[in-house]
Design goal:
By secondary structure, this protein is an alpha+beta fold. The protein contains 3 helices and 3 strands; from the N terminus they run αααβββ. It folds into 2 domains: 61 residues, Up-down Bundle (Single alpha-helices involved in coiled-coils or other helix-helix interfaces); 46 residues, no CATH class. The mean pLDDT is 89. The protein binds zinc ion (ZN).
């Protein structure tokens, strides 16, 4: 692959990431009053990320169900609980497909 092509691909990735971020900003604004549109935007974001091979940032990924790929909004489309068996963790349940995702809280982590 020539140098210019590689550079071009990096540019595309940068643009794609920018677009994903702007879509997520839009989702933040409309998710409380227009859920179908927010889900549609999310679908577009996922398509952009797949086509351009860009990862969706982790801070946004928390809001997406792993199973049905829908938007998780605490109290509306998802249930958030703090559980404590052996280790303290947060459980987020998707109310569409009842899929659960867990985040472990590491107390010894220095971040
Ligand atoms: Zn789900």
């Amino acid at each position: 692959m020539t140098r210019s092509k590689k550079k071009n691909r990096n540019n595309i990735r940068k643009l794609a990431l920018d677009q994903i971020k702007s879509y997520f900003n839009e989702i933040e604004k409309i998710k409380s009053d227009n859920l179908p549109l927010a889900n549609r935007y999310l679908d577009i974001c996922r398509r952009i990320s797949m086509r351009c091979k860009v990862r969706i940032p982790r801070s946004y990924k928390i809001n997406i169900c792993n199973n049905c790929k829908k938007l998780l909004i605490p109290g509306i489309t998802s249930r958030v609980r703090i559980r404590n068996n052996k280790k303290t963790h947060i459980t987020i349940t998707c109310l569409y497909c009842k899929n659960q995702k867990r985040f472990y809280i590491n107390k010894n982590e220095n971040r």
